[in-house]
Every structure is written in structure tokens, then in C-alpha cells.
Amino acid sequence: MPVVGFGCPLLAKSLRCNCTNCEKSGFECETDGACMASTSFIQGREQHIRICITSDHLVPPGQPFYCRSAEGLLNTHCCYTDYCNSVDLKVPSRESSPGRRGHGGGWDPGWVGSGGPWGPVELVAVIAGPVFLLCMLLMVGVFLFQHHQRAYSHRQRLEVEDPSCEHLYLAKDKTLQDLLYDMSTSGSGSGLPLFVQRTVARTIVLQEIIGKGRFGEVWRGKWRGGDVAVKIFSSREERSWFREAEIYQTIMLRHENILGFIAADNKDNGTWTQLWLVSDYHEHGSLFDYLNHYSVTIEGMIKLALSAASGLAHLHMEILGTQGKPGIAHRDLKSKNILVKKNGMCAIADLGLAVRHESITDTIDIAPNQRVGTKRYMAPEVLDETINMKHFDSFKCADIYALGLVYWEIARRANTGGIHEEYQLPYFDLVPSDPSIEEMRKVVCDQRLRPNVPNWWQSYESLRVMGKIMRECWYSNGAARLTALRIKKTLSQLSVEEDIKM
Length: 502
Ligand SMILES: Nc1ncnc2c1ncn2[C@@H]1O[C@H](COP(=O)(O)OP(=O)(O)OP(=O)(O)O)[C@@H](O)[C@H]1O
Ligand SMILES: [Mg+2]
Description:
Elements: E1 15-18, E2 28-31, E3 34-42, E4 45-53, E5 74-79, E6 88-89, E7 100-101, E8 107-108, E9 111-112, H1 120-161, H2 166-169, H3 176-186, H4 194-202, E10 205-212, E11 216-223, E12 226-233, H5 238-248, E13 261-268, E14 273-280, H6 287-293, H7 298-316, E15 328-329, E16 338-340, E17 346-348, E18 355-358, E19 363-364, H8 380-383, H9 392-412, H10 437-446, H11 461-473, H12 484-497
Antiparallel strand pairs: 1-2, 3-4, 3-5, 6-9, 7-8, 10-11, 11-12, 12-14, 13-14, 15-18, 16-17, 18-19
The structure holds adenosine-5'-triphosphate and magnesium ion.
């Protein structure tokens, strides 16, 4: 072991080091070079040396010879701060793996202590640090996820089970009729509270599918022993679901001739959202289904026609005041969108395409697109796109045209003296089964054709009145058509004359 600058003189140099051989100077030395520590294992003997190295012996620069280690024999560490060579170096062994170069430039297979990079502690820190950080991030992630889940289910529970007045609404013995009665007397006028809607919807047991439309399926369901209809929209149709629920919850819309809305619910099952619209169930199904199955008496015809006019008049009517309602146009009136109740009256359904009139600003509540609805029932001004969409009454006039077509479907099925016609859709003899707009436009606008009103209807007062109403619903000029209220009055009068109890 070379002893370079080794000795005891306390030189007037700046760096102080531990010195194993400097008994006289209290095992300390001073140098202008480096402090050095080395541990050797030679011929079975361990030897620890700490000394000063003078600057002129620190050659070659950067990797001084005296600071080098020798694998398996010698661990050497040079350093440049006071007493920095107090470190305990590992005893070299043949098996020890090569380490990194110490900052003294020697081959440093690993020393224990402070002052050098990439020692075992540092190595552990370098490896364990990121692992620890990763674990922490993972734990924080898991915690946040669990927290979110807990908050979500709590929120869901709150929405379903709270507010605390729920038990008042949903006491076990209450039927739907009771609920809806409570609602009508509580004065909101726009439907059940949302949490009640949700609870009702989530406790319905679906029984059988009863129909399929453009936006989804319709099911019969059971709630507390009573039947309900559930229209299930696909998640793609969320906008239609939302719009229909919104329209049904228009303040003061409820009417005996408008389908009774019960609840809307969007149930997220984790993968997709189920969109439900719950309403009264009518076992006869749509007017289209009904007329296909049954012919009707004169009384039955008037009942159907008058109730449909009452429903449409209520829909169209604007009621002013705090408990008022806006005027609403249906825009998809047809026999499939009118249901037949047990008492032989109609209930207008499918309000998903409806528009509401905001009379203060004289605007329509959504940007109406030109041609929605069912092509067969489109008014001439809708088919040729001349409808004035800025004017809300235009939409009401288009509804009246469609009502006239529905009346024609009903009147054909009226049983007079044992005669009645088979069920047919309007224009069945003039257009194919799924007509295009162009095909409808040619017939309705260009040729100005309308469904046939047979002459023999003139022989029966009620059929004569019905025929007259139809013609006045079908004018090419929308503004010339009857209003729903006018039709309602005419048919009311007819029902009195015919001694019909409504
Ligand atoms: N509340 C209800 N009670 C009983 N049956 C119903 C009810 N609502 C709908 N239905 C039945 O389900 C069918 C499908 O209704 P839906 O409104 O989805 O489609 P549609 O009216 O036939 O066609 P579109 O998609 O053009 O409106 C109806 O034709 C009717 O027979
Ligand atoms: Mg429908």
C-alpha cells in the first residue's frame, strides 16, 4: 500500500482527514489533495487505512492511481471534504460484483457510508423510490375510485329513497291512482316528484312486449298489482326520451284524453343506460289496433272522434296564468299514436315530436325541423315545405289535417244498418305501403287528392257531419281548416243530438 503524503505533519492545508497512522496528531492529518480510506483483504488479513493524499500525487487527474480499487483485494475511496474518509468500506471479496467508479476516480465496488453516489443505500433508494411512488399512486387511485363509488351509490340511494317525505307518497297501500290523485291535489300540475318517479319505475315488473315503434319497445308492466305501459328507448334515442318526458311534464298538461304520464327513469346499469317512460296502460292498444279488430257503432264513432278532438284541443290550447299551460302542437298525429281506453275514449300519445309555443316571445321552444312525423299523415304544406315555421299556428293546422285523416279511418268502420267498410289506412288506394315524401306530395299537393268520402254517408246525420268535418280539415290552405275547439263543439252538439252519454 503506497503511502502518499502519508505522515503526521499538520500542514497549513485546507483539508482535514482521519489518519490511522497519525498517533501524534490525534489520528488526523491535513492536506491540499484528498482524504483517502481503503480496506484491503490480503492473505486472509483485513486492513483498514485512512490517510491524506497530497495534490501532487493525485495523478492522473480524474482517476488518480492512489484512489483506485482492485476487485476482490482493495476497496478505495477518495474524497474532498473534512474527515470524509471516516466511511466504513466493505471488505472486498472475490464474489463482490463490480460497482461504479467513485468520485475519487478509483474502481469502487461499493462502500458503506456517506459521500459517494450509487452506494447500496442509494441503489435501494433508486429502485425502491419509484416502486414506492407507484404503490402510493395506486393506493391513492384505489382510494379515489372507492370514494367515488361510495358517493355514487349514496347519491343513487338519496335520489331513490329521499327526501324523507317519500313514505308519504309511497306508503305501501297506495295504488297508482292514489299517487296520481295526490299529485293532482298537491298543485304542482306537472307530474310526480322525480324521486317518486324513479322509485315507481324501479319497482315495476315487466310482463310482456306489446309493441315496437321507431324509438324502441313498449312493454306491459306491473306496479303494485296494476298495469302500466313502459316505453323503453334505446340509449341512442336519449334525446327522444328526454324530449317526450319533458313534454309530458309540461305544467297542466294532464287531461283525460291525453295519455297519462307516470314516470321517466334513466337507469344506468354500468354498461348502458336504460331509458324508460312509464304511462297508463290501455289494453285495447292504439286506435289503429282497435279499428283493425272492431267495427264501431255510431255512438262509438262519436265517442272516439269527440274525445280525440278534446285531447287535441287541450294540447293546442294555451292557458294563461301561473297555473296555465303553453300551446302544444303534436306533429305526429295518427291512429297508431292514439290509444283507446276501456271506456271507448281516446288518449293522445307519443308526444316526442311535439313543439311548445312561448307566447310572450312568440317563439317555439325547440328549433323545429321541416319534415318530422309520418309521411302518410303529413299536411300538404309540410310535404311541399311551404309551411311557415315561424308561425306556431301552422303546426296546429298541420295537426288538424292529420286529425281529419284519423276521422276518416274511424268513420269507415262505423256500423250502419249492418254495413261497414274494412279497415284501411288513409290513401291506401293512392300510394304504396311505405310511401316516400315525393309519392305523397304528388297525390296530396299536385293532384290535390284526398281520401274518398262516400255519398251514402250523407244518409246518416252523424256520418254526414263527420264527412263535413273531414273536408274542412283537409283544405290545402292550412289557415282555412277548422280548429280543434271548433271540431270539439260540433261533435259535442252531435253527441247531444244523438243522445250519447260521454
Ligand atoms: N300506453 C299504452 N298502452 C297500451 N299499448 C300501448 C301503449 N303505448 C303503446 N302501445 C302499443 O305499442 C305500440 C308501439 O308504440 P310506439 O309508439 O312505440 O310505436 P308506434 O306508435 O306503433 O310507431 P311510431 O314509432 O311511428 O310512433 C303501439 O302501436 C301500441 O299498440
Ligand atoms: Mg307511436
